[in-house]
Each structure stands twice: as structure tokens, then as C-alpha cells.
């Protein structure tokens, strides 16, 4: 599994509009790409701006290329988003996803169960 990470910043007065755009249209719209598994959206106040981090999750690099094209590190930005972003990463970073939140929960549950079985 591949996690694609990208950062964008907007003015505080545009932050809710941008978040709503991502929620309503942009992130759900990627479902048309075979191998897209979903996304995480992070938000924080960063001085005079609001920073957004998107982590989109794909089955493999082939799915990333279906989404972003041959130049797969290039940022894919909705035209309406460009008007309200003050700046953004021109390139996305890609990571092999080695643990997910669900994986960690399963590990914790197994660890707790093992502790019960061993009397620890």
C-alpha cells in the first residue's frame, strides 16, 4: 500500500471553504481511480495561514500513476482549490505504508490477549 502525502496552505478566512471542497468533491471524487483506498485530511493553524495535509492511500504505484499520471510526484490540484490556496507543495511524497491504525489496533489487541494468556 502507498501513502501519498501533500501539503497546502490557505488564509484562515478560506480554510472552511477549502475543507468543504475536499470533503464534498475532491477526495470522494478520487474513488473513480482503481486502487484508491481513501484519504486522511489533517488541518492546523500555522501562523497567518491554515495548513492542510492530505494523505491519499493507494494499492500500489500503478494506482498512483492512474491518479497522477506518468509524472506521478506532481501535485494534482483541483482548479477551484488553486484560487484559494496561498501556496502548496508542487510535488507529493510517496511512502510504503507499513502499519495502519487498524494494524496497530490488531497488534494491541493481540498483545493484550497474549498478556492474559501468559498471566502477565
Outline of the structure:
The chain has 120 residues and is an alpha+beta fold. It is built from four helices and five strands; from the N terminus they run βαββααββα.
Protein architecture, described:
There is one protein chain. 42% of the residues lie in helices and 32% in strands. The protein has four helices and five strands; from the N terminus they run E-H-E-E-H-H-E-E-H. It has helices at 12-29, 61-68, 79-84, 101-118; strands spanning 2-10, 36-46, 49-58, 85-88, 93-96. It has a single domain, classed as Alpha-Beta Plaits. Strands 1, 2, 3, 4 and 5 form a five-stranded antiparallel sheet that branches. A hairpin with a 2-residue loop joins strand 2 and strand 3 (49-58). It is of the alpha+beta class and 120 residues long.
Sum up the structure in keywords.
120 residues, alpha+beta, Alpha-Beta Plaits, five-stranded antiparallel beta sheet, 42% helix, 32% strand
Measured by DSSP, the beta-strand proportion falls in 25-35%
CATH architectural arrangement: 2-Layer Sandwich
CATH topology: Alpha-Beta Plaits
Cα-based radius of gyration, to the nearest Å: 18 Å
Number of folding domains?
Answer: 1
Low-pLDDT sequence parts: none
Largest sheet composition: 5 strands, antiparallel
Distance between the termini: 34 Å
Count of extended strands? 5
- Overall pLDDT score: 93
